[in-house]
Design brief:
This protein has one domain (2-275): Alpha/Beta hydrolase fold, catalytic domain (Rossmann fold, 3-Layer(aba) Sandwich). The protein is built from 9 helices and 9 strands. It has helices at residues 56-62, 66-72, 117-132, 147-158, 179-189, 201-206, 225-229, 231-240, 257-275, and strands spanning 2-9, 12-21, 26-34, 43-49, 75-79, 135-144, 167-169, 213-219, 244-250. The protein has a 6-stranded mixed sheet with strand order 1-2-3-5-4-6, sandwiched between helices. The protein has a 3-stranded parallel sheet with strand order 7-8-9, with helices on both faces. Helix 2 (66-72) runs parallel beside helix 9 (257-275).
């Protein structure tokens, strides 16, 4: 592991880190904010998963999370959205390949060589955080935006008990029924749609996977609300299967980091109560 950038912010340390990933078979990069409390005691961890086209840098620079993280004493970990490199299979579109790993473990060549973001986020990255930082791994939570909101919810649904809480900003709720998801899942996972259900929040809930509660913020002016987000499907699935969904429709907000940064402190405070 190598720290490539470090800044002091709100009394804590904002780092950018690179390391060799076994899961993705390449060098990976993430950012981590260590609140001042981490100097003296183990702190809980909140993972933030980013959306299409993003890297670790977008939320690190625009997310405005450090004041709240320092107040509540929470480590914030922001991984990249895909493997990267000249030898990584890719396509020249924003919704697939580099910047668009969809947080799955690919089974189809050539993508299976590197696109294993699910294992990276749920196994390899937490192990690295536990080894290198003053983190209390018994207290982990997860959140994310758009494709990352999808990622946060599937990670929590597939790993009961691992995360104390899960939230999302404008999540892709059922990628299997969106053009983005159908394209990505076919190429990453193959044409058998039954295999997609492991990585589809609505399908997982329909299949009996449980969470105590989910917090979601969604902008009413989001240009992807009807085509990509499909929030009504999440509402119906949670209602039919006894999951407490707190859905806050935020009037006039779009899909951008102006939206995310407006409610980031709310989400961190919400997770802090559940992290104890």
């Amino acid at each position: 592991m190598q720290i490539t950038n470090e800044n002091i912010s709100h009394g804590g340390r904002q780092l950018v880190v690179t390391h060799d990933s076994n899961a993705c078979n390449c060098e990976m990069k993430f950012s981590v904010f260590l609140p001042p409390q981490a100097e003296t005691k183990p702190c809980p961890v909140l993972y933030y998963l980013s959306g299409l086209t993003c890297s670790h840098a977008n939320v690190t620079e625009k997310g405005e999370f450090r004041a709240a993280a320092a107040e509540h004493g929470i480590i914030i970990v922001c991984p990249d959205t895909s493997p990267r490199g000249d030898d990584i299979a890719d396509e020249d579109v924003y919704f697939f390949g580099t910047g668009a790993g969809f947080y799955v473990d690919a089974t189809e060549a050539p993508f299976s060589n590197h696109y294993n973001m699910y294992s990276y986020v749920t196994k390899e990255l937490p192990a690295l955080i536990e080894k290198e930082f003053n983190a209390d791994m018994s207290r982990q939570s997860i959140t994310g935006h758009s494709m990352g909101g999808h990622g946060a919810m599937i990670c929590a649904l597939n790993n009961p008990g691992t995360y104390k809480s899960v939230s999302a900003f404008a999540p892709i709720c059922s990628p299997s029924v969106t053009d983005w998801g159908k394209n990505a899942f076919t190429k990453y996972l193959g044409s058998d749609e039954s295999t997609w259900r492991t990585y589809d929040t609505v399908a997982l809930i329909e299949d009996g996977n449980k969470l105590p509660e989910i917090l979601v913020d969604q902008g009413t002016a989001d240009e992807f609300l009807e085509t990509g987000i499909r929030i009504s499907l999440l509402e119906a699935a949670c209602k039919d299967n006894g999951i407490n969904l707190t859905l806050r429709m935020q009037e006039g907000y779009d899909h951008s980091y102006y939206f995310i940064s407006s409610f980031m402190a709310d989400h961190i405070a919400w997770h802090a109560k559940r992290l104890g």
